[in-house]
Design goal:
Its main location: mitochondrion. The chain is an alpha/beta fold and 344 residues long. It has two domains: 229 residues, Rossmann fold (3-Layer(aba) Sandwich), CATH 3.40.50.150; 83 residues, no CATH class. 33% of the residues lie in helices and 15% in strands.
């Protein structure tokens, strides 16, 4: 049966958020999330910050099993009422996905969420890395936390920590168009190609599912203002629904969760000066056989950091794993400090 439509969005007492309020857009997103689905049963879908629940209802009507993670008390009664009217298809949990596993010790203060407790409440157990995707996650990234959220998830991915302790968790996020351009940037695209691009492309298959104008979303700002972020160098006329699926072969060869902080640090250091030649960067690490390493990888000696493709960075890292440079204490300490700063 069709579930009744959701109430309107309250505009007071909330941090800035965007919502899906259009049934038409909700239908488009639902079809994107189920695109190519052939497994039976389908993995559970964790919907982050569902708000008024327009998409929630559309997913339920399509037969999807949904866990709704909502932090604002104004939305919880309606979602919980919907949960009680169904036979286990919907589970509502109070919490904020974008405050997942905060650093530090002590008791978590709501709406922060512990991934272990969240997945336990969802009834999801860990599976081997090469197994099928156990959970799909959908959300609209908070505008003021977009890059920070993606960095933290990136570190969790490479370390197999947080949500990735449970397997290859699939992310389906609406991100700004400019952020999508960075995620998928190619070598030589000076305005977009960054360490961030390389690391996500090495770690995940990135698929654009849909592009939607900013005006299609509702905000909780006064007078319904859209608050579209400005962008000078990159287009930013849409929100992009992007699927990030961890690669099954990510942890093969010399790349392992125990040394990925070094890989991340290496890529970041290379992009500290994108026009720097790779040989100069490697020589700055006191590596004696730079020419031999690059020659064995068929990489030109004059190649600049910005011109190497993501897979080249992985190949360079694996070659360097056979040298002494990554066993030196200073390099290890710098890598750990880099991780700590990103996760603040």
């Amino acid at each position: 049966r069709l579930v009744q439509q959701a109430p309107s969005v309250p505009r007071k007492g909330l941090p800035f958020r965007r919502f899906i309020a259009s049934p038409k857009l909700a239908g488009t997103v639902q079809r994107c999330l189920q695109d190519g689905a052939s497994r039976d049963p389908l993995p559970v879908l964790l919907e982050c910050a569902p708000g008024p629940g327009v998409l929630t209802r559309t997913l339920l009507n399509a037969g999807v099993r949904v866990v709704a993670l909502e932090s604002n008390p104004a939305f919880l009664p309606n979602l919980q009422s919907l949960e009680n009217s169904l036979d286990g298809q919907l589970k509502v949990i109070s919490g904020d996905f974008f405050r997942l596993d905060p650093l530090g010790s002590g008791t978590l203060k709501p709406p922060a969420v512990c991934s272990e407790k969240l997945f336990d409440a969802m009834g999801v157990s860990a599976v081997p890395w090469r197994a099928d995707v156990p959970v799909k996650i959908f959300g609209i990234l908070p505008q003021n936390k977009e890059r920070t959220t993606l960095w933290r998830l990136l570190f969790a991915l490479y370390e197999c920590s947080s949500i990735y302790r449970y397997g290859r968790i699939e992310l389906n996020f609406f991100v700004s168009e400019k952020e999508y351009k960075v995620l998928t940037a190619k070598p030589g695209e000076a305005s977009a190609y960054q360490a961030f691009s390389v690391l996500w492309q090495v770690g995940c298959e990135i698929q654009l599912l849909h592009m939607e104008p900013w005006s299609s979303f509702v905000t909780n700002l006064k007078n319904g203002e859209l608050a579209i972020p400005k962008s000078v160098r990159l287009p930013n006329d849409h929100l992009c629904l992007v699927r990030l699926t961890p690669r099954q072969n990510l942890f093969t060869g010399s790349l392992e969760p125990t040394n990925t902080s070094t890989f991340i640090f290496m890529v970041k250091q290379c992009f500290a000066k994108p026009t720097c030649r790779l040989t100069d960067r490697l020589n700055s690490w006191s590596l004696d056989d730079t020419d031999q390493v690059l020659s064995s990888l068929a990489i030109q000696k004059k190649a600049e950091a910005r011109h190497l493709c993501p897979e080249d960075y992985r190949r360079v890292f694996e070659a360097l794993q056979n040298s002494s440079v990554f066993t030196e204490t200073w390099f290890h300490d710098e890598a750990l400090e880099s991780v700590r700063n990103i996760n603040l």
